[in-house]
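Apologies for my clumsy wording, but are you able to produce some protein sequence, whichever is easiest, and the tokens describing how it folds?
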Amino acid sequence: MTELQKEIVGYVGGVMSSISFLPQVIKIWKTKSAKDLSMLTLIFLTCNITLWLTYGILIGSTPLWLTNAIVLSMVVCIIYFKIKFKSTDKL
């Protein structure tokens, strides 16, 4: 496999990973509820993504750090919405 092919696989995987969180962000935003999501899981996920982002930067892998930067921003949005909509989740 050539370096270009490896990069393409990395970017395609990155796009798929990034897109996978988008429906959840949109659903939380529309319903104004994140009550079914575990905050502990989101915290672990944030730590995991941050480590992968750091690793991608350290090894100079653009697909790896770029993907994780995008996913991290979406997970941070989910955490923000979970905190913001907490008062409405009790209704």
